[in-house]
């Protein structure tokens, strides 16, 4: 509904979901006047469930589809120019230190892949956090 409204207002040109690429389907694309945005969507539970503590440290370090490494790899295989993003809804807010430590863990563990956080946990309530991560294309990649 929001994306349709933004199109109607002329703030975005177009959007599409489940876009096929050689690396797999990308959850969402948004075209603006100047750029194309490729977006993968995730949801992470933060807190204790069935005796296990789920935290950014757990998710950022996980190699399976629970983590983001497969999503990052899929985005990096996009041949089209544009910006690459991960949009992660965390329920609840993990806090600034835990979020940034998770980002650092991913960048260290899965180098040369890299992500930059563009949102701050302290700007959200305790109940949720919307983490926006920019996926960094390798140096010398001319698609961006």
User: What structural class should be given to the helix and strand makeup?
Assistant: alpha+beta
How many alpha or pi helices?
4
Radius of gyration: 16 Å
Stretches with pLDDT under 50, minimum 5 residues: none
Mean pLDDT: 90
Order of helical and strand elements: HEEEEEHHEHEE
**Estimated helix fraction:** 10-25%
- State which percent range the strand residues make up: 35-45%
**Sheet bearing the most strands, described?**
6 strands, mixed
Q: Care to count the β-strands?
A: 8
Sum up the overall morphology in one term: globular
Name the strands of the widest sheet in spatial order. Answer: 1-2-3-6-8-7
Distance between the termini: 28 Å
